[in-house]
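Hi U.,

Before I forget, here's the chain from the pilot set. I'm dumping it here mostly so it's searchable later in email.
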Amino acid sequence: MRFLHTMIRVGDLDASVRFYTEVLGMEVKRRLDMEKGRFTLVFLAFPGADERAAQLELTHNWDTDSYDLGNGYGHLAVSVANMESSLAAVREKGGKIAREPRSLYEGGPLLAFLEDPDGYAVELIEEG
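Structure:
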């Protein structure tokens, strides 16, 4: 077995694709427009990721503009090489920083949180 993808439902597909490609630097790997079911799937991964690497699936139901995120969802997590430069790039590209960087414990990695256009949390973890 292997992990294939994580799916999140999005209200504005174009805004979400822009966020994940322009702010986070992911690439669209595949897009499926399903006329019969009235939905679109967009699969994204980071550049250089092996084709078998886990991906993010954005699902846009054509007749739904927004979703209740519920209280069970936590966040997506992404590693960054340098928190300061990564957050500077996020700010420059108009991304929303929901929580500024901090460590959970002394000597621990820096963590920060972004918010995507639908309100989903994306954690950045500095790998050093």
